[in-house]
Amino acid sequence: MSITVFGEGRGFRVVWLLEEMGLPYQLRPVDLLAGAENDPEFLAINPAGFIPAIVDGEVTMVESIAIMEYLMARYGPTPLAPTPDGAAFPLYQQFLHLGEAGLAASIYFVNGARNIAPEAERNNWSAGQALDVFETRLGLVTRQLARAPYLAGDRFTAADISVTYALELAKRAVGFPLGEAELAYVARTSSRDGYQRAMAACHATRAWAERSAR
Ligand SMILES: N[C@@H](CCC(=O)N[C@@H](CS)C(=O)NCC(=O)O)C(=O)O
Questions:
Q1: What's the gap in Å between 7 CA and the centre of ligand 1?
Q2: pTM confidence score
Q3: pLDDT per residue as tens digits for the range 34-68
Q4: How far apart are CA 28 and CA 41, in angstroms?
Q5: Comparing C-alpha atoms, which of 181, 193, 174 is closest to residue 151?
Q6: What's the rounded Cα separation, in Å, for the pair 80 and 156?
Q7: Is the beta carbon of 144 within 6 A of some atom in ligand 1?
Q8: How far apart are CA 129 and CA 142, in angstroms?
Q9: Which of 5, 144, 150, 193 has the most Cβ atoms closer than 10 angstroms to its Cβ?
Q10: Which protein residue has the closest C-alpha to ligand 1 atom 12?
Q11: Is 108's pLDDT higher than 80?
Q12: Measured between alpha carbons, how far is 51 from 32 in angstroms, rounded to an integer?
């Protein structure tokens, strides 16, 4: 039985991980702009209406980082998840979660305020706070990249999938000016075969990347 991934967005992380692990899956598009309420099959999977979700046999899950942890634990071991006894583990855990909780979640709301909110609400205080949170957390990424090529050290891990997605979101959605170290890092992680295969599978993400590069 193969795994079904519902929706791109942060689902790109999940697809990228599946490609890196060589696991069979299918991607089921979810068009949030058309309204999740018009997609009863998806709403039956995630009544809260956000993406991504996965179905794997009897298992249904949401939250991209939790889904990655589930897939690595159930179908690993994989070098994408350093083991708890190794030196890379603490930084791996930290950046795996910081990629969503500190970076993507914050910049997501900056994007909402800048690009979706009514004109009069675009400069609201919370959008400024979210940008500030993103920038302070990004400082930890910059510091780590001065020490090592990847966030957990010398080797690429799922923490890099988590953070690369957040950095690309910031660049594409709000034109956030990433520094030299971050740009070189994203070039490094996104040149991987797994990333390229995920991009080939994720049509909406590819179209978004092409639009924002213009
Ligand atoms: N922390 C969640 C965030 C999920 C999320 O906010 N997804 C966005 C698209 S990438 C979404 O579905 N937004 C619509 C909504 O929240 O209703 C994760 O990592 O999966």
A1: 10
A2: 0.98
A3: 999 999 999 999 999 999 999 999 999 999 999 99
A4: 11
A5: 181
A6: 7
A7: no
A8: 20
A9: 5
A10: 50
A11: yes
A12: 8
Please indicate whether residue 50, judged by its CB atom, sits closer than 6 Å to ligand 1. yes
Q: Which amino acid is at 190?
A: S
- Structural tokens at position 57: 């046999």
Is the confidence at residue 23, as pLDDT, over 90?
yes
E strand residue ranges, the chain = 3-6, 25-28, 53-56, 59-62
Q: Residues, the chain, total?
A: 214
| DSSP code, position 6 | E
- Ligand 1 geometric centre to CA of 52 (Å): 7
DSSP string for 159-196:
HHHHHHHHHHHHHHHH-----HHHHHHHHHHHTSHHHH
